[in-house]
Fold this sequence. Notes:
By secondary structure, the chain is an all-alpha fold. The chain contains twelve helices and no strands. The protein has one domain: Arp2/3 complex 21 kDa subunit ARPC3 (Orthogonal Bundle), CATH 1.10.1760.20.
Amino acid sequence: MKSKLFSLAIYLAATISGMLVLLYPFFLPEKAAQSGFGLVAGGQMPMMMTFLLGLCLLVLLYEAQGPVVNTKLIALLGILVAINSALRFIETAIPGPGGFSPIFFLIILVGYVFGGRVGFLMGALTLLVSALITGGVGPWMFTAGWVGLSTPLLRPFARTSAARIGKAGSSPKISEMLVLAAFGVLWGFLYGAIMNLWQWPYIAGPQNQSFTSGLGPGAILQHYLAFYLVTSLVWDAIAAVGNAVLILAFGAPALRALRRFKQRFEFKYSTHPGRPASPQEESVPE
Length: 286
């Protein structure tokens, strides 16, 4: 029980930290206005990177000692992070159309197969490692972690969809890919909408699209939606479509490979030496 609470506290700290970085201008508008976007971002970069690196190392050390993540899985995670970081290097050198980025394909699938903890590490470490080359340090590291952290929420929908479509004679695998693709579309828009908060309070524009201190939550939301529709909707739509296309095209073989690795890395354990583990003891929580 204590280990679960400690693990929850680690991921909760990461989530709260990312939210504070993104949202503090809305709670401290005077300080944000005095500092300006460039100075605030520049001052936060080293602190943010150090904090996230320390947090990820703490998570890795803690999880490696528990039954959920073992050393083999950590090694696989390192390989997948390296692959995804290389994809981000390529994306930086040869930008794709709009907001399309290939890195979310693996973040979503890894989190879906191995669980939210590993998914968070996959997302955060991908952007953290690639930031050493691209220089892109910012709250997007936390946001990418949230993408992987949220993927286990798909499992009930995937099972329900598979059961319904299976009755109609379609393959449940197709339904699973459709659920994952829909999730990729959702995060294509959601990732862009979240990341806009990093700079929107500092952008001068039309009055009905700009952040103004003292407005109520409803008015702020209305201004932000107007800003998003004008500046980001098409950009994020390309990202959303790109996520869905990659998942539908390559998701099935990637899922099979990841699940084979998961089966190899899982181990059975018994709380009573000399007695075979029961089905309840054999299941490894994620």
